[in-house]
Amino acid sequence: MSPLTILKKLNRGLMVLAAFWAFLLAVSITIDVAGRGLFNQPLTGTYELITNSIAMIAFLQVAYAVQSRSMLRADFLLHLFPGWLKTVLDIIGYAAGAIIFALIVYGCIDPLTQAIVRGEYEGDGALRVPVWPIYCIIILGSLLASLSYLVMLGEEITKRRSGDV
Predict the structure, then answer these.
(1) 3-state secondary structure of 138
(2) Rg of the chain over CA atoms, in angstroms?
(3) Chain segment 22-67, per-residue pLDDT in tens
(4) Residues 75-121: pLDDT tens digits?
(5) Which of 147, 71, 134, 145 has its CA nearest to residue 108?
(6) Which residues have C-beta within 8 Å of that of residue 47, sequence separation ≥ 6?
(7) What is the DSSP letter of 79?
(8) Which of 63, 40, 41, 52 is nearest to 145 (CA)?
(9) Distance separating alpha carbons of residues 27 and 5, to the nearest angstrom
(10) Helix 132-162 to helix 83-118 angle, to the nearest 10 degrees?
């Protein structure tokens, strides 16, 4: 199996995991709301789980969004540009995306090590959630997004050289 196939399957698998995780959050919110309304007894720790899960779900899905070319982009003007300019803009966009997500990886390494060393937790009271898994998922998702942008950059450059444009 090629590294590109592994990357694509990993991105898709993480996206499915994030979707399942979001479904479980919806169930826990429903149970929390029903518990509050019917029994005056909320589901303990729901707030902490939700607030920490949102970023994790987003970063689990970001690489698949890049890979499937679903990342937000302003392409409403692209149909007005000649083919060569579209290619140049794609190359610049893919390079910028790879750099931005690589910088996110770099920026999260120190906070990750600090969170592990200090034993940082999020939340008070009923449920305390460790912070380091959040950083790990942000790093993983950003790394995979950066790699996906690099793959797309390579495909765009190769397509241009072979005259497929």
Answers:
(1) helix
(2) 20
(3) 999 999 999 999 999 999 998 888 888 898 899 999 999 999 999 9
(4) 777 778 898 898 898 999 999 999 999 999 999 999 999 999 999 98
(5) 134
(6) 123
(7) G
(8) 63
(9) 33
(10) 160
Antiparallel, parallel or unpaired: β 129-130 and 121-122 = antiparallel
- Count of residues making up the chain: 165
Q: Looking up tokens 């939340």, which residue turns up? A: 123
Kindly report the number of other CB atoms within 10 A of residue 83's CB atom: 9
Is residue 7 within 8 A of residue 147, CB to CB? The reply is: yes
Taking Cα atoms as reference points, which of 10, 17, 136, 108 lies closest to residue 67? 10
**Which amino acid is residue 3, in one-letter code?**
P
Positions of E strands within the chain: 121-122, 129-130
**Could you give the CA distance from residue 145 to residue 110 in angstroms, rounded to a whole number?**
20
Question: How high is the pLDDT of residue 159?
Answer: 81
